[in-house]
Write a structure and sequence with these properties.
Elements: H1 2-5, E1 9-12, E2 20-23, H2 25-29, H3 31-42, E3 52-56, H4 59-71, E4 74-78, E5 88-94, E6 99-105, E7 114-122, H5 126-137, E8 141-150, H6 156-159, E9 165-170
Parallel strand pairs: 3-4, 3-7, 7-8, 8-9
Antiparallel strand pairs: 1-2, 5-6
The structure holds adenosine monophosphate (AMP).
């Protein structure tokens, strides 16, 4: 895990003053670190009856697609508004400052699906909680959520209540 930690770069005051952005691009650039991160992300879910992996735009697409491939599952993109071409279900949610929205195709998941949600980072948990509600509104079950980085001090885990959460690096 220290190998992974050394590949996460802190960028102070990005995208705005006071935020320390956790930059995962050094990890993506290192083949061994990327392989390790993907293996560690998926490890608890081997043989877990999952039917799909959903990734949150945009960095969740990178890890989510790799995890889906390794688990032999398909991938569901959860996207920012206006990007998906077919009929969508949308959810609006509050961020620390301001609001945001996510969309998913209506036929992406349904009843009987057990979905693993992946993103690069868990902060306040608003994005992850909205993702759970979005998939559940289509009848799917959220089996668990997995993140490369968790910012413990923002208590996102508390917002996600009963869902199993797996994170690799805690700050
Ligand atoms: P939240 O909804 O507060 O949990 O924010 C999570 C989303 O915002 C994820 O998609 C992250 O990629 C991004 N994010 C929030 N805070 C940071 C941070 N300090 N560094 C990098 N990404 C962040």
């Amino acid at each position: 895990m220290e190998r992974l930690r050394s590949k996460i770069r802190d960028i102070p005051d990005f995208p705005k003053p006071g935020i320390v952005f956790k930059d995962i691009t050094p990890l993506l650039r290192d083949p061994a670190a990327l392989h390790l991160a993907v293996q560690q992300l998926l490890h608890p879910f081997i043989g877990g009856n999952l039917t799909a992996v959903a990734g949150i735009e945009a960095r969740g697409f990178i890890f989510g697609a790799l995890v889906a491939r390794e688990l032999g599952l398909g991938f569901v993109p959860l996207r920012k508004p206006g990007k998906l071409p077919y009929d969508v279900r949308s959810i609006d949610y509050e961020l620390e400052y301001g609001s945001a929205a996510l969309e998913v195709h209506l036929d992406a998941v349904g009843k009987g699906d057990r979905v693993l949600i992946i993103d690069d980072l868990l902060a306040t948990g608003g994005t992850a909680k909205a993702s759970c509600e979005l998939l559940e509104s289509l009848g799917a079950e959220v089996a668990a959520l997995a993140f490369v980085v968790e910012l413990d001090f923002l208590k996102g885990r508390e917002k996600l209540g009963p869902y199993p959460i797996h994170s690799l690096l805690n700050y």
